[in-house]
Amino acid sequence: MATHGGFEPVFCTIVPPHVLDRLAQADDPVLAGTARRTLQRDAYERTQRRLTTVVGARAVAPLAAEPGKPHRTVHDAGHGTDLPGRAVRTEGDEPGPDATVNRAYAGLGATFELLLSAYGRDSIDGAGMPLVATVHYDRDYNNAFWNGEQMVFGDGDGEIFLDFTLPIDVIGHELAHGLTQHTANLTYFGQPGALNESVSDVFGALIKQYTLGQTASEADWLIGAGLLAPRVTGTALRSMKEPGTAYDDDVLGKDPQPATMDDYVRTGRDNGGVHINSGIPNHAFYLAATTLGGHAWERAGQVWYDVLTGGELPQDAMFTDFATLTVKAARARFGEGEELLAVTKAWERVGVRTL
Questions:
Q1: Closest CA to 267 of 86, 101, 275, 77
Q2: Of the listed 91, 149, 174, 339, which one is catalytic?
Q3: What digits encode the pLDDT tens for the residues 175-186?
Q4: Distances (CA, A) of 298 to 95, 192, 211, 232, 255
Q5: What b/e readout covers 298-320, taking b as 16+ CB neighbours within 10 angstroms?
Q6: Has 174 been annotated as catalytic?
Q7: Which of 46, 133, 260, 350 would bridge 151 by S-S if both were Cys, CB 3.0 to 4.6 A apart?
Q8: pTM of the entire predicted model
Q9: Which of 275, 283, 295, 339 is catalytic?
Q10: For this structure, is 275 an active site residue?
């Protein structure tokens, strides 16, 4: 049994630093300036997150939430940076005139619903944790993040990125960092960090597919589709189906994600390439889910959830550790059937050994 030594919440963004670094070097001073301000804000929030892990998070008043029911609050930062901002929609309120607020509220609910309906989990911590989001964060802020306590969404600059509440999988991705935080608590560096990012992409994709009622074959397997502005040559931030193909743009550069271990990227940037090498376990999940067919959250998703919550995944898990546990979980839940074969073959195809 792995021991996780208490939660170590981290600051996790949907747009990788390498993308913003590239934008910060753009010839267009407007694009470059926005990217630099986003990087500076991210650096500040990341530092605040580290300080919080030392001094402790602020106390949250207990809520008399009904078990098995969501407790959502959406705040408006008013283009400032004080969190959480002014509460503008709470649980049970009718939709208001602000579409961004309504999308954030719906995305929190979709995440809660998938976890409860598919896996019997009451919110991301399993104990009815309230789900909090802040929208309209800063001005032209080109990111969304989970800070260990809540979700935060920028409006984008309208030139490269649009409103970050537009893709529901972005909301699901960031909330899934909270799920990982409250379960396996994977270290945010190197292969454990890439697994952390991949788990968020997996559950972001599942939330999107669950909301749309899609089967694995019907899904686009894109993360962040609809987020890129019309001027950008690309379809999304990442592709689980074909890592490395999500964008190829004069300003953004080319999607650097590998699909297999043959192209594994060794780098000290981006916490050891957590947003880059996540393409490998992402592709393994895609292969397993599409081989099995049907609704991906029912079998492949169940296996991944079992590993994440099973207590055996170490915080410093490497790809081989995670893959081995998925094989074990597939066998434990489904026996020696097609699920076990699909999971095993998926890891073989991306070049990750199972022990």
A1: 275
A2: 174
A3: 999 999 999 999
A4: 31, 25, 14, 35, 30
A5: ebbbbbbbbbbbbebbbbebebe
A6: yes
A7: 133
A8: 0.94
A9: 275
A10: yes
